[in-house]
Amino acid sequence: MRDVCFVLVGQCGAQLGGALFNRAAQLYTPPPTTHPPSGGRGSHDARHRTSRKDGKASGTSVSSGRGKGKGKRAHGTRYHAVMVDTELKAVRSVLGATDPEALGVEINVVARRGGGAGGNYALGYHGRSSRRVDHSKKTAHWKAAAAPRYSGGSGDGSGADGGTLHERALDALRGVAEQVAPLSFVMVHALAGGTGSGLGARLLEEIRDEFPAHHLVTLTVAPFSDGENPMQSYNSVLCHRALDLYADAIVLVSNDDAVEAQRPADPRKAVAIPRVSIEGCNNRIAAAVVGALAPVVDADGRNGAARHCSLWEVVGAVAPSPAWKLLRAVHAAPIRGTAESVDALVATATKALGKLPIYDAEQVRIRTLGAQVTVRGFSEASWSREFPTLTQTLARNLHPVEWNPYAVDTRFDTGQLGLGTIPRYPEVAALVNRTDGPADLQETLRRAEEMFEARAYWHWYAQCGCEQSDMDEAFERARGVVANYASA
């Protein structure tokens, strides 16, 4: 993942991004990358620290310690991330709980104080067109020695302090692109809020326009079905339009599934009542995503033998057609202390894939269009002898379509990459693309259509620049996604 830039949008994106980097630090340490000398053309820090006309620093760089006298990194690499939010305090809380130097990550923050997006897609997408803010009087103060400063931008199109939020974010992405080539993007955001859905959709458009040849995958968090925002159905449908148009693949994770995964399978056998939390949801999602995307290593265990999983490989293996690109991430690990064996390997794979439903709401068998299964932590002897058994288990649980004989791609990590601070345990992680992919979208579409027919809350969107044609196009695009999967 060293050639990937993470675009963390909104509070959910920032919190989930921190969980992703923590999980990656526990699991995997890639070889170091080469950076241009400080202050040169490729130095993003130097360029943004002098980007304001008054000569004051306005860029944000949470560096992992590049340069002379800053060798405090725990790892010999650097992850790149651009954190974008319409509310500075949300970003500050995440950075306060994250140690970029220990994780080997460089975070560029683009945020503004106050306001937020009010849970409104239109406000996040179009910005506060009627509000003007003097950001020169709003300076963020940080306690850390390498403390970041927020890259302002009013987000209202006025051009104050260097432009809007999405313009400042693009400027930060250009700086990362100068350092890393080839570069792919992973956007992490949520559908329920105004920033994650609205500003996230705007950034999708801008990134695709600025980097048309780069791969763009999103990690999209679907809202709770019980409701966390009365306008979440509008936000989700409108954002799905941009996702379907501009993203190469969409890893759609559900808050409901993450909460359910924290509950014991049999409450009667539980020693104590588990604590269900947002942090626990983020950790569950991060374990599945990092386990599926992190590289694998050969049996000799050499770090240099690690085979990185580029995003184009993921897209090619799991999303065989642009019409079907809704992916789901699953993860399971054996009970700690269990002896390594073929049975444990097969049981772990069955546990991971057993979380997937077999039939849809109409009792039609769900089929797999594409899948990438990654098995980690088992020695070569554990699986090489019984590889056919594992293959049969995967085929039985995933039930691939007949027209794709190579629907399931399996990767084995037989080396020891556990170089982080926490020992690594065997696990099975998978990205799957199944015919029930748009099930949640179909329900969200139904709710949004009912609300729009009654014009519920619509005046809030119209006031912020959203037109009826935007909603009609979003409805049509969502119906097309459902129809495409129905015909698979």
Overall description:
With 488 residues, the chain is of the alpha/beta class. Helices cover 39% and strands 14% of the residues. The two termini are 31 Å apart.
Feature tags:
488 residues, alpha/beta, ten-stranded mixed beta sheet, 10 strands, 39% helix, 14% strand, globular
Write the layout of secondary structure elements.
Elements: E1 4-9, H1 10-27, H2 44-49, E2 79-85, H3 88-96, H4 100-103, E3 105-111, H5 121-126, H6 165-179, E4 184-190, H7 194-210, E5 216-222, H8 232-246, E6 249-254, H9 255-261, H10 278-293, H11 311-318, E7 326-332, H12 342-353, E8 368-376, H13 380-384, H14 387-398, E9 408-413, E10 427-434, H15 439-453, H16 458-463, H17 468-486
Into which percentage range does the β-strand content fall?
A: 5-15%
Taking all Cα atoms into account, the compactness measure Rg is: 22 Å
Unreliably modeled segments: 30-77, 130-161, 299-306, 416-423
The span between the termini is 31 Å
Structural class comes to alpha/beta
N-to-C SSE string, H for helix and E for strand: EHHEHHEHHEHEHEHHHEHEHHEEHHH
Let me know the largest β-sheet. Answer: 10 strands, mixed
- Helix proportion range: 25-40%
* Apparent shape: globular
Strands ordered across the widest β-sheet = 3-2-1-4-5-6-7-10-8-9
Number of strands: 10
Number of contiguous helices: 17
Average the pLDDT over all residues and give the rounded result.
75
